[in-house]
């Protein structure tokens, strides 16, 4: 019978493409890992990797089986987590990942609410890009991820919408659009936008915020964070779209930039996602309620 240990060996080899590093990741010796994989291949009747003295090449079936192995291992982790919670009478550990354009603005408001609602829960936060978060969730490295949609999710992941997050246009104080009460998609046509670098979902969301209009990216610069974008706008180097969440959290406080409404822009949808197989769905929905409360608190504070 195929063992969980063999599945871990297979997933580690696919991740590292190296027997030594895979063995290190699994906390075994290289001969142990090699022997386990040979036993797996013999049982399955297929070759999962081509080996040479200096390289490892996963076969097509090996790549597919490694992906299935990751899914099984995540389910095993869920199984063990459920048993551990029962054994420890409610003590909970939650590994939450978030994209950089949501977590830094929402979580400072949310943390006190989460601590009050779940006093025995140890919360560990990670900030990563969306692709990395989804991979971490599927593999079992993360329990829960805070993302923005539209974004394609694998079938083993389920999500719950938290709130819509619209945009405002940020311009230098002397920019021609700074004097308008509102700005439309047509106003932005042929005006390149300063955006986050590729890999940030906000970059794609901003460009598609006006589906009927083609928006262009300023190719001369790509930022790694919203504060960098704001600083570039303040220096008169361009214009950008900023999510309302970040603005309500005070992202532009102390900066000389003009913010203009974009009433026709399509908002992004901020949501919480977890594995469909997880036994903690009830807890995750409770976390979602607290995150909504945090967002409402930011909005209320911003309107005072």
UniProtKB/TrEMBL annotation:
The keyword Transcription regulation applies. This is LysR family transcriptional regulator, hydrogen peroxide-inducible genes activator. One of its GO terms (cellular component) is protein-DNA complex. It comes from Antarctobacter heliothermus. InterPro entries: LysR_HTH_N, LysR_subst-bd, WH-like_DNA-bd_sf, WH_DNA-bd_sf. Belongs to the LysR transcriptional regulatory family. GO terms for molecular function: DNA binding; DNA-binding transcription factor activity. Gene3D superfamilies: Periplasmic binding protein-like II, Winged helix-like DNA-binding domain superfamily/Winged helix DNA-binding domain. The keyword Transcription regulation applies. Pfam families: HTH_1 (PF00126), LysR_substrate (PF03466). Keywords: Activator, DNA-binding, Transcription, Transcription regulation. Residues 1-59 form the HTH lysR-type domain. CDD domains: PBP2_OxyR (cd08411). PANTHER family: HYDROGEN PEROXIDE-INDUCIBLE GENES ACTIVATOR, TRANSCRIPTIONAL DUAL REGULATOR HCAR-RELATED.
């Amino acid at each position: 019978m195929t063992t969980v240990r063999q599945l871990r060996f297979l997933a580690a080899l696919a991740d590292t493409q190296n027997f030594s590093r895979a063995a290190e990741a699994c906390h075994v010796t290289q001969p142990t890992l090699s022997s386990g994989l040979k036993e797996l291949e013999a049982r399955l009747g297929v070759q999962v990797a081509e080996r040479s003295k200096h390289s490892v090449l996963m076969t097509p079936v090996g790549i597919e089986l490694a992906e299935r192995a990751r899914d099984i291992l995540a389910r095993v982790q869920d199984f063990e987590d459920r048993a551990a919670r029962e054994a420890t009478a409610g003590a909970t550990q939650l590994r939450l990942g978030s994209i950089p354009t949501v977590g830094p603005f929402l979580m400072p408001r949310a943390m006190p609410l989460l601590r009050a609602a779940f006093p025995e829960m140890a919360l560990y936060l990670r900030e990563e890009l969306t692709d990395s978060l989804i991979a971490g969730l599927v593999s079992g490295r993360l329990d829960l991820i805070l993302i923005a949609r539209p974004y394609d999710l694998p079938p083993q992941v389920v999500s719950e919408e938290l709130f819509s997050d619209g945009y405002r246009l940020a311009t230098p104080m002397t920019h021609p659009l700074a004097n308008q009460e509102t700005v439309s998609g047509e106003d932005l046509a042929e005006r390149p936008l300063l955006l986050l670098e590729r890999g940030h979902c906000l970059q794609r969301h901003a460009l598609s915020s006006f589906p009927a209009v083609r928006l262009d990216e300023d190719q001369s610069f790509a930022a790694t964070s919203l504060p960098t974008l704001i600083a570039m706008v303040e220096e008169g180097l361009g214009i950008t779209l900023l999510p309302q969440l970040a603005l309500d959290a005070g992202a532009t406080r102390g900066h000389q930039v003009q913010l203009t409404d974009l009433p026709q822009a399509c908002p992004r949808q901020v949501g919480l996602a977890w594995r469909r197989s997880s036994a903690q769905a009830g807890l995750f929905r409770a976390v979602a309620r607290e995150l909504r409360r945090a967002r409402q608190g930011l909005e209320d504070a911003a309107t005072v």
